[in-house]
Automatic annotation (TrEMBL):
UniProt entry tagged with the keyword Membrane: yes
Protein topology in the membrane: Multi-pass membrane protein
Membrane-spanning segments: 31-55, 75-104, 116-138, 150-175, 204-225, 231-254, 261-285
Pfam family, one: BPD_transp_1
Origin species: Azospirillum griseum
Function: Part of the ABC transporter complex CysAWTP (TC 3.A.1.6.1) involved in sulfate/thiosulfate import. Probably responsible for the translocation of the substrate across the membrane.
Protein name: Sulfate transport system permease protein CysT
Similarity comment text for this entry: Belongs to the binding-protein-dependent transport system permease family. CysTW subfamily.
A single cellular component GO annotation: plasma membrane
SUPFAM superfamilies for this protein: MetI-like (SSF161098)
Domain named ABC transmembrane type-1: residues: 78-282
A GO molecular-function descriptor: ABC-type sulfate transporter activity
Subunit description: The complex is composed of two ATP-binding proteins (CysA), two transmembrane proteins (CysT and CysW) and a solute-binding protein (CysP).
Keywords: Membrane, Sulfate transport, Transmembrane, Transmembrane helix, Transport
Underlying gene: cysT
């Protein structure tokens, strides 16, 4: 009788279990529709242009691609764009953190005005920023003339001018990334550290800074990415001298004007690959720091 009863019991098979999971209603309604829309949207706006760029560059062939990328002019432009973008992002990481710290931790007259001015590079057209910076730091400008006369320092039409322009456009990325983390940081952790005898320096480096570091790395990466692709604010103050102050976006425009579409695609593809590798490294570092801090 027990054997007969056990024979009537239907155990779920693997296929039926998978079917029941797929038919189970999702907690978020419309997941399939929104996921399809998201993937289609990203595919059309991001993957399709990148794919067309890579296909165009692939028309040169393997040797033709490297011959177009490894010319002295292109390598010098790589050095200018990526090197100065790293310098500007590092400067923004330091001073952007200080600006965010002051805006969060202190109260002073004009605080809202300063907070609004941080977003000025977002709202200001890049060409206008480039014209303003070049007029300010030109040899006869308000700042450029005293620097040239007193210290013999030339800013406009030099790599230093490019670094200043990239620092200007990248500062808001660091400030707006670090600022919310500082606002949400619970003061009880700092108070507990002080009650245990920690100094202000020890409290900052062992309590505050580890919590802010992942956001700071994110701001650094965003500032770096913006600097690599920046065009409008740089061309006016750079001087655009090949091998010295010529940036990669300008070199791509020059190749397009010369109807060298494949060469421009090759430079753009190499620029895309280098940027992807560097940002991937930064994201891995950020993930490692977050997991370490979570422990």
């Amino acid at each position: 009788m027990v054997a007969a009863a056990s024979a009537d019991v239907a155990f779920p098979t693997k296929g039926s279990a998978v079917t029941s999971i797929l038919k189970k209603p999702s907690v978020l309604p419309g997941f399939g529709l929104t996921l399809g829309f998201t993937l289609s949207y990203l595919g059309i706006l991001v993957l399709l242009p990148f794919g067309a760029l890579i296909v165009k560059a692939g028309g040169l062939g393997w040797f033709g691609f490297w011959n177009a990328v490894l010319t002295p002019r292109v390598l010098a432009a790589f050095q200018v764009s990526f090197g100065l973008s790293l310098v500007a992002a590092a400067i923004n990481a330091v001073f952007g953190f200080i600006v965010a710290w002051v805006l969060v931790r202190y109260q002073f007259p004009g605080k809202r005005l300063v907070d609004a001015l941080v977003d000025l590079p977002f709202a200001l057209p890049t060409a206008v920023a480039g014209i303003a910076l070049s007029a300010l730091y030109a040899p006869n400008g308000w700042v450029g003339k005293p620097l040239n006369e007193l210290f013999g320092l030339k800013v406009a039409f030099t790599p230093l001018g490019i670094a200043i322009a990239l620092t200007f456009v990248g500062l808001p990325f660091v400030v707006r990334t670090v600022q919310p983390i500082l606002q949400e940081l619970p003061p009880e952790e700092e108070e507990a550290a002080v009650s245990l005898g920690a100094t202000r320096g020890q409290t900052f480096w062992q309590v505050v800074f580890p919590a802010v570091l992942p956001a700071l790395v994110t701001g650094f990466a965003l500032s770096f990415a913006r600097g690599v692709g920046e065009y409008g604010s740089v061309i006016f103050i750079a001087g655009n001298m090949p091998g010295l102050t010529e940036i990669l976006p300008l070199l791509i425009v020059i190749k397009l004007e010369q109807y060298d579409y494949a060469g421009a695609a090759a430079v753009g593809t190499s620029m895309l690959l280098v940027s992807f590798v560097m940002l991937l490294i930064l994201n891995i570092l950020q993930h490692w720091m977050r997991s370490r801090h979570a422990r």
